[in-house]
Amino acid sequence: MSNSQKPWWQLPRGITRGLWDYAHAPHIARDYDRYFANYKLFEFDAQVIARHFVRPGTVVDLGCGTGRALLPLAERGFQAVAFDLSQEMLDVVGEKAAAAGVQIDCLRGNMVELGCLADHSVDYCLCLFSSLGMIQGRDNRQRVIQHVRRILKPGGIFVLHVHNLWHSMLDGLGRAWLLKHIPRVIFKRDLEAGDRFFHYREIPNVFLHRFSQGELTDSLRQAGFRIRELVRLDVNRHRELRQPWFLGRWRANGWIAVVE
Question: Fewer beta carbons within 10 Å, N or C terminal of the chain?
C-alpha cells in the first residue's frame, strides 16, 4: 500500500490526510527553496534565532523542512538535529549538509510523538513557519509543547512561530471566512476556533490552525515555559509590528515566541 493510500484511521496522531499527502509529495520538498527564495519571514526569524542562540549546543528543529534554519546553526558549530514527517524534506537536508560540509542528524517522525528524544537532552528547539499549526487538535498541539519542555535542558530556549486567527478580520476574504467559521465552531462544533482546510500547491485539504494570542501564551505557560520575548509580526511577516501596543493582538499577522 502506498503512503497516499493509507486509510485515515491509520494516520499518525494529529496528522490530517492533507498534511500526510503534503509530507509525501516530492514536488513540495524539491521545489521548496525556490518557492520561498524571497520570503522575508525566513530572514526575520533567522535574526531572532541569532539573537537568542548565542552559545553552540544541541538544537532540534521540529518540522524542519529543507533545513533552512538549521544549516546556519550547524555552520556555527551547533549539533543540529532535523526532525520532519517528510522523508523527502530530510533527504534535501542531508544533501545540503553534505554540500556545506557540516553534520546534521535527520529523524523522521511525528512531532506529537517525540519519545525518541531523551529528557533534558537538547539546549535549543525550533518549530517555525507555523509547523505547530499543522497539527490538528489542541490536545495534540499541547502534547508537542510538553515534549519540547521535557527534552530541553534547564535554561533551554524554544523558538516558535504561529499565525494569528484574528488577523483575518483585516481583509475581505478573511472576514467572510470568519463569518462562516465562528458559527460553525459554536453550533456545529466539528472544528476548533482557528482550524482551516485549504488547497495548497496541488494538495487538497491541507490543515492549518491559527492561534489567538491568549491561546498561544496559555499553552506555553501551561507547559511550564516563561516567555522571554513575544514578537508581533507585521502584515507582511518581515518585521516586528509597528506600535504593537495598539490592538497588537488583533493586528499582528502572527507571533514568534521565544521562551525558556
Answer: N
Candidates 197, 235, 199, 233; CA nearest to 216 is 233
Share above pLDDT 90 across residues of the chain, in percent, rounded to a whole number: 93
Q: Is residue 189 a contact partner of residue 156, using CB atoms and an 8 Å limit?
A: no
Rounded distance between C-alpha atoms, residue 122 and residue 59, angstroms: 6
What's phi and psi for 32, nearest 5 deg?
-60, -50
For residue range 195-216, what is the model confidence (pLDDT) as tens digits? 999 999 999 999 999 999 999 9
pLDDT at 1: 39
Q: What is the dihedral of CA 203, 64, 158, 206, to 10 degrees?
A: 0
Tens-digit pLDDT profile for residues 110-154: 999 999 999 999 999 999 999 999 999 999 999 999 999 999 999
d(CA 247, CA 232): 11
- Give the pairing of strands 227-232 and 254-259: antiparallel
Cα→Cα distances 225→153, 202, 213, Å: 12, 37, 15
d(CA 180, CA 256) in angstroms, rounded, equals 28
Which residues have CB under 8 Å from 149's CB, separation 6+?
158, 223, 224, 225
Q: Please give the share of the chain, as a percent, with pLDDT higher than 70.
A: 98
Helix (H, G, I), strand (E, B) or coil at 106: strand
Q: 144: buried, middle or exposed (CB in 10 Å: 19+, 13-18, 0-12)?
A: buried
| Single-letter amino acid, residue 100 | A
